[in-house]
Amino acid sequence: MGRHRERARADRAELHAVLDAGLVCHLGLIRDGAPVVLPTGYGRIGDTVYVHGSTGARYLRESLGGTPTCLTVTHLDGVVYARSVFAHSMNYRSAVVHGILHAVTDPDEQLAALRAIVEHLSPGSWDHARPPTGRELAATLVLALDLDEASVKIRTGPPLDDDADVAAGRAWAGVLPVRTVFGDPQPCPRLPAGTPVPEHVRAR
Amino acid sequence: MGRHRERARADRAELHAVLDAGLVCHLGLIRDGAPVVLPTGYGRIGDTVYVHGSTGARYLRESLGGTPTCLTVTHLDGVVYARSVFAHSMNYRSAVVHGILHAVTDPDEQLAALRAIVEHLSPGSWDHARPPTGRELAATLVLALDLDEASVKIRTGPPLDDDADVAAGRAWAGVLPVRTVFGDPQPCPRLPAGTPVPEHVRAR
After folding, report:
1. For B102, which DSSP code?
2. A128 and B57 in contact by Cβ < 8 A?
3. Among residues A19, A33, A199, which one has the least CA distance to residue B81?
4. DSSP one-letter code for A87
5. Tell me: the pLDDT tens digits for B133-161?
6. Most CB contacts within 10 A, which of A33, A155, B46, B163?
């Protein structure tokens, strides 16, 4: 991935759109001199991305104090079948953010960030579910990453075969779209029978 | 992600299964002292994962020569709605592989690795499409990563709410399944009209 018909798009709205369309990011940290790439949820407010975790999570604590970080969100949009195996590719959108993770210490910002993270994963949940207690907030580490240094790459469209391969016409070529979908809600077994699925879950 | 009902599963078959079920991995490298996380395709043969790129790709060339790497594959399986915002979570499977990237220099291994990468992305394409030429192979850098140091994390099941929240019964709780699906094949505009979609694409 990364060689054909790509362009780095600096457009801020496009960056926000790619970030907002994802559910999981991959966070890259350095631990003991080696990169560690972990999946995690996230949220965005303006030009700041937030992630969170337990205050007991060693990898998060270690990533504070000025360690550089990379946060990447990728959407696979299609498998690109070409006339040559060499020209096979993927259609995708990805956002790559570089920066320093900062711990959020202001209580108002922490609460706003957690709301953004929860609402990103499950829109409507913040007002529907029980709010966090002081003890829960104290156990939650919230980290912020500025979008100052970020790039977007997008590949779209059909395969880019050589003219000779197109003329030869020996293989099928095209795109098999890939997308992420939601299934039917599965109620928790501890939920009373007949509890209706709320609109913010059902409509998704 | 990462706090609740997780267990590190050392089982090799499970590791293979998580890797094989993915299409995109996130590759973590260190460049100029900072982590870089990039999405890319991959393939697996036994206990080796292969990635590839252009020999002109600086990030791949720089990752050779003993630099530690992390390769992560994540499947999001569900959004976990809980009675409290704090217990919201995701169901997922992830494989995290640590190691050193080695350039593949043996021509037979290079060809086998490229076949594995192409067949992973698009099963059936290697025999259907035109094979790589010597020039194309020379322009392709193939990198190998051993699965010696790898872990799998899996979260499944309903939310883990406190008993008090379950008893309060104020919010819906359950799992909204998430899955990746393929759409209808979109033929390349340069394909002659009426070209049938081959079985290996149609059946997917």
Report:
1. E
2. no
3. A199
4. G
5. 999 999 999 999 999 999 999 999 999 99
6. A155
Among 3.50.50.60, 3.40.50.1820, 3.40.50.1860, 2.30.110.10, what is the CATH number of A8-160+178-202? Answer: 2.30.110.10
- Reported as a single tens digit per residue, the pLDDT across B45-99 is 999 999 998 777 777 777 777 789 999 999 999 999 999 999 999 999 999 999 9
For residue A26, give the nearest of B72, B179, B180 by CB distance.
B72
What CATH number does the domain located at B8-159+178-202 have? 2.30.110.10
Domain ranges of chain B: 8-159+178-202
How far is residue B71's CA from residue B148's CA, in Å, rounded to a whole number?
Answer: 12
Distance CA A21, CA B73 (A): 19
Chain A residues inside the 8 Å CB shell of B2: 38, 40, 53-54, 57
ipTM: 0.93
Helices (H), chain A: 12-20, 58-62, 107-121, 125-128, 134-138, 163-168, 199-202
Token code pair at residue B99? 């190691």
- Cα A200 to Cα A11, A196, B1: the distances in Å are 31, 12, 22
Q: How far is B39 from chain A (nearest CA, A)?
A: 7
Partner-chain residue, chosen from B3, B53, B180, that has the shortest CB–CB distance to A54: B3
Q: A57 vs B184: CB contact, 8 Å cut-off?
A: no
Distance from CA of B149 to the nearest CA of A (A): 12
